[in-house]
Amino acid sequence: MTRIQANLVLLLAAAIWGGGFVAQSTAMDKIGPFWFVGLRFAIATLAVLPFALMEARKSKAPLSRNGLLSFVAVGLALFGGAITQQIGLISTTVTNSSFLTGLYVVFVPVISVIALRRYPHWIIWPAAVMALFGIFLLSGGELASLTRGDALTIVCAFFWGIQIILADLFVSSTGRPLALSACQFAVCAILCLVIGLFVEPIDLAAISAASREILYVGLISSGLAFVLQVIGQRYTTAPQAAILLSSEALFGALLGALVLGEKLPPLGYVGCAVLFAAMLLVELVPELTRRRSRLSNA
What we know:
Blueprint lengths: L2 H25 L5 H26 L6 H24 L5 H8 L2 H13 L7 H15 L9 H27 L2 H23 L4 H6 L1 H22 L5 H8 L2 H13 L5 H32 L1
Helix pairs in contact: 1-10, 1-11, 1-12, 2-3, 2-8, 2-10, 3-7, 3-8, 4-6, 4-7, 4-12, 5-7, 5-11, 6-13, 7-11, 8-10
């Protein structure tokens, strides 16, 4: 897969996640967040597991214990991001949630520098600021005073940043994207369902009422989009992936307006243009730099 193809795969994942915001929000009228997230990722695990087993049979070497533990670490980060985002959606809007979740576009390069001493291409920094500014404009250029849901979504963005970095690190070292996906889904599902048993009632009627949302985010938003993420990240860098994935806010805001009647303000259209400009910069500048370098060395 070329870098351009990988980035298109990541953009598709972002579009699917944007649609997932709407399903996640409407589900909170029917079911508790722990049961919703737990069932979502249980379905995602079952959907990906057959392909992960096929991948294992084709692999030249079995997955090591350290490899498995690294996948569990990604699952813990996924759990932190998924559950704080879901609880946050109880008391914030789809537009605000998609904006605040997009803060991981800033967290990823900062965490990469502090924890891994990885210094990205210089264009990542202005592009990250542009992407964040574009997401801010998408919300209308202002946010109401922070609610509990908004604060939880900021925490969620930090966990997503860690998940993106760990997925990038471990999928590269193991070459097992489907195994990573199945494992992280299973870890998140088990943790949420176990906690749900103690903090939320078991209500089969509520599960039935939210079944469409659970199936969408389980099979499409989780099972498909997260697999696209880890596959795409094999061929690009974590900061570039973060900026491309941040476009989920664009899709989330648009679908929130279409399905839930949340209004996209005039500044939101400017935000769309800024966001796509940031993605183009991330795509084009490193490629032009490499070409220039090759020409100068020829």
